[in-house]
Amino acid sequence: MFRRSLAALGVAAVVSAGAVGCSNDADEATTVLNVYAAASLKKAFTEIADEYARVHEDVDVRVNFAGSSALVTQIEQGADADVIATADEKTMARLGATAADPEIFATNTLVIVTEPGNPENIVGLRSLTNPELSTVVCAVEVPCGTATAQVEKNTGIDLKPVSEESSVSAVVAKVTSGQADAGIVYVTDARGAGDKVSAVTDPAFAEVVNAYPIATLTGSPRQQDAQMFVDLVLGETGAAVLRADGFSPAPA
């Protein structure tokens, strides 16, 4: 959750004036903008949300990070969301006309993460078929799992993961906590984990690229603020943040 609220100012006004009304006025002056974003966007959208709130001091930006499929399900069930950014187009398409004119803002590919130093000497995807290794992947219902399944299909390699997680961040956590020898995540997640993991690539990963779309929600009563957030992501500021976090640009 990322907040730029006037609550503190409201409290100060109450103390000085001895009236509750000032606090209520401050609350009413703040717009809450709910952004739903794929787990793999956590670092980038944290920075972008902070930048948005810095410019729009009257907006309280709240970002809900989870697996793309879970986010869409929450919106389908009536969650109060203004903006949605998923890790693939297929998941976004589930929202149909509820997502207003989705636009691609970044792309991402997969990579293998291991314990620091790669102690099991994993050299590529086929290494993960070793029955002595414990591998975790994303569940096929979420974009990183769909991409992993496509890589398996393309290569004919059949992985036997010890678990299938609901988000890419959960896969990273299993590896960094020592519960698994390896996991398949996005390049950006490997970079975000820093020295907590080692990354191992495979040529097959380059053939499966996830495109990330973003859209406002048609039912949002905060369309102007939502569109300004989308514009920030699609603009130079968003592109710079995403690039620094390892995302590739949207195709021209």
TrEMBL record:
NCBIfam families: modA. PROSITE patterns: PROKAR_LIPOPROTEIN. Keywords: Metal-binding, Signal. Residues 1-19 form the signal peptide. Belongs to the bacterial solute-binding protein ModA family. SUPFAM superfamilies: Periplasmic binding protein-like II (SSF53850). This is Molybdate ABC transporter substrate-binding protein. It comes from Gordonia sesuvii. Gene3D superfamilies: Periplasmic binding protein-like II. The lineage of its organism: Bacteria, Bacillati, Actinomycetota, Actinomycetes, Mycobacteriales. The gene is modA.
